[in-house]
Design a protein that fits this description.
With about 500 residues, this protein is an alpha/beta fold. It has 15 helices and 20 strands. The protein folds into two domains: about 270 residues, Aldehyde Dehydrogenase, Chain A, domain 1, CATH 3.40.605; about 190 residues, Aldehyde Dehydrogenase, Chain A, domain 2 (3-Layer(aba) Sandwich), CATH 3.40.309. The protein binds NADP nicotinamide-adenine-dinucleotide phosphate and magnesium ion. Keywords: Oxidoreductase.
Length: about 500
């Protein structure tokens, strides 16, 4: 494949980055913005700053494409997904290089696995859509025969964040393609080069014109125009709670899948396998520099083992090599942007003010090309009134808060604002199940990292929490992105 993705030092920037109705074009008012590398601070490309007018053109293209695409046989839609998966794998080195340069994650350890996972996402959608069964339902009326069928909802607005810039879009684009929806996709500005690189693959795989449309630009402009557009039927959004709530209002009445923030907790009882627990906490807190919605952002630990567990996690933090994403030895890259680093500073300062102790890390690494290099941080004695206990930090942090008995844990689980992913460590299965059943999180991992997830498993926020609406993952997303239609036939009419 001849790549058109711009990355300075590699290729000339492509001037037209909006993909609408199958053609590449500039934004309506010709404005652009610069893609900046979080690791060097240098410009790595130029992107189009789209407008509401561009979104409108994209919605019209998606609407026009929907009429035919919804009728394309499901086996052919699955074949498109298979071709995308194949092309992603053939171009994995290029895609991973773009992800690593644009997002900041380590090339070999994280960007490449993310790209490979995205291929799996398209493969899964191709396979699962062939099992998206309806039902035949027995009825009282002897003349009627009733069945249900799943149909695409129509035009989707999909707004995605920057932390997994190929894989999170795939969570929506693959099932949309498989089920016959069409899409206006608004990627996060800080990883829009990744979006262009993925869209190039979709084009080469033969996604029909207008079925997927890419509009880059500011979320508050193009994202808002897309979710609120009167001719958009449904919305898929992954991002923060604040934006998610705003979108829920702007898209009121439309079908919505909202994957929002989370902050654990991971709960460790004194009888747990502490070495494994420490490894899991380090993995869940420091992978992707902690910029994962299911990260171990709050660790509730039985008081008698707090010091031991803290020391084990701190030792693992110190083993991490913070460095440039393209360096094969790097096991922790820079944060994607200043906002996350600033929030980390605030959260740590607040916790320390309230009495927490910094075992390792605690600030930005000196002498780096940008201020985004954050040391992996382990805290103990974090009190429950610390900001980070309630809010999402989204950086490389493992904060330990002691507890004395299970009643305290169960109470804490009920009062948490977030409800996305949690983990519990104990050798007592009864206790593990009590905690797992009490957690309001959409997923609970017993004796594993809170981030454990495979693409086909249901994932999402618990009701009554602020972590979102609906479930993504395999068949769940296919169901969420389709309408269930009931078809009744009266035999007497034939
Ligand atoms: P964010 O600030 O909510 O932004 C997400 C996307 O929404 C960006 O592209 C943003 O564009 C856009 N946006 C902003 N305002 C908008 C508006 N009014 N209408 C439509 N779109 C708008 O989130 P983030 O900080 O980039 O991403 C991190 C968050 O995502 C974390 O909270 C994390 O937990 C969450 N997340 C959740 C999951 C999950 O599966 N549950 C997975 C990964 C991440 P701009 O950048 O231009 O504002
Ligand atoms: Mg943002």
């Amino acid at each position: 494949m001849t790549s058109r993705t711009a990355m300075n030092g590699q290729e000339e920037p492509r001037p037209k980055h909006l993909w609408i109705g199958g053609s590449w074009r500039s934004g309506a008012d010709g404005q652009t913005f610069t893609a900046t590398s979080p690791s060097t601070g240098r410009a790595i490309g130029t992107l189009q700053r789209g407008t509401a007018e561009d979104v409108d053109a994209a919605v019209r293209a998606a609407r026009a494409a929907f009429n035919d695409y919804r009728l394309l046989p499901v086996w052919e839609r699955a074949a498109i997904c298979e071709r995308i998966a194949q092309l992603i794998l053939e171009n994995e080195a290029h895609l991973a290089a773009v992800v690593s340069a644009d997002q900041g994650k380590p090339l070999h350890r994280e960007a490449l696995p993310e790209v490979r996972k995205a291929a799996t996402g398209y493969r899964n959608a191709a396979a699962h859509v062939k099992h998206l069964y309806g039902q035949t339902i027995p009825v009282e009326d002897p003349h009627k025969r009733v069945s249900t069928v799943r149909q695409p909802r129509g035009v989707y607005a999909v707004v995605t964040p920057w932390n997994a810039p190929v894989n999170i879009p795939t969570e929506y684009l693959a099932p949309a393609l498989a089920t016959g929806n069409t899409v206006v996709w608004i990627p996060a500005p800080s990883t829009s080069l990744c979006a262009v690189a993925l869209a190039e693959i979709l084009e080469e795989a033969g996604v029909p014109p207008g079925v997927i449309n890419l509009v880059t630009g500011e979320g508050s402009v193009v994202g808002d125009a897309a979710v609120a557009h009167p001719d958009v039927d449904a919305v898929g959004f992954t991002g923060s709670v604040t934006t998610g709530r705003h979108i829920a209002h702007r898209a009121a009445g439309k079908a919505q899948l909202l994957e929002l923030g989370g902050n654990g907790p991971t709960i460790v009882f004194a009888d747990a396998n502490l070495e494994l627990a420490a490894e899991a906490i380090a993995a869940a807190s420091f992978t992707n520099a902690g910029q994962i919605c299911s990260a171990s952002e709050v660790v509730l630990v039985e008081r008698s083992i707090q010091a031991e567990l803290g020391a084990l996690v701190a030792a693992l933090a110190q083993e991490r090599r913070l460095g440039a994403p393209e360096d094969p030895g790097t096991s922790l890259g820079p944060l994607n942007n200043h906002d996350v680093a600033d929030k980390m500073d605030r959260h740590i300062a607040d916790a320390v003010d309230l009495g927490a102790r910094v075992l390792t890390g605690g600030g930005r690494a000196p002498g780096r090309p940008t201020e985004n290099y954050y040391e992996p941080t382990v805290l103990t004695g974090v009190p429950r009134d610390a900001t980070l206990f309630a809010e999402e930090s989204f950086g490389p942090i493992a904060p330990l808060t002691p507890f004395d008995d299970i009643a305290e844990v169960l109470e804490a689980l009920q009062s948490r604002q977030f409800g996305l992913a949690s983990a519990v460590w104990t050798r007592n299965m009864g206790r593990a199940m009590r905690v797992a059943e009490a957690a309001r999180t959409g997923t609970v991992v017993i004796n594993g990292p809170s981030t454990y997830w495979e693409l086909h498993l249901p994932f999402g926020g618990g009701s009554g929490t602020s972590s979102g609406l609906g479930r993504i993952g395999g068949l769940q997303t296919l169901e969420a992105m389709t309408d269930l239609k009931t078809i009744s036939v009266d035999l007497r009419g034939f």
